[in-house]
Structures are given as C-alpha cells and as structure tokens.
Write a structure and sequence with these properties.
two-stranded antiparallel sheet; 434 Repressor (Amino-terminal Domain); 74 residues; mainly alpha; 4 helices
Amino acid sequence: MANCKGGESWDSRRIRALRRHLNLTQMGMAGELGTRQQTISEWENGEYQPRGASARLLSIIADRCHFEYRAGPK
C-alpha cells in the first residue's frame, strides 16, 4: 500500500483514485485546486504529471483525507 506522502510521484491512476475518493468530478477537483478541468484531464490521461506546488497540494490533500493508494493491474 502506497501512501501519498513525501516524494512519491502522482501518476494518472493515483490522481483519478484520489479524485474518486474525494467524490469529485474533474471540474470539482479543478475548482478545489485552483486549476483548469483540462489540467485534471491531462493528469488523468497521463499526458502530464503534476509537479511542484500542485504535486505537494495533492499530497497534503491525500494525507488529510487518509487516502491510501493500492496500485492494481493496468
């Protein structure tokens, strides 16, 4: 079980799982993060990975909502 803390990277499946754990749409998550819905879509499609402040914010949110991620088969 991978807990999203520290220097762990945010891949597309982990981002989608966090969003679903929070019961948010892409638009809702974008609003919470102060970004565009398109950005969330690009992260979830693997076009880009969040970095810097965005990655840190995702880690903080994951920690506070006790999100634990288990990687499943692709």
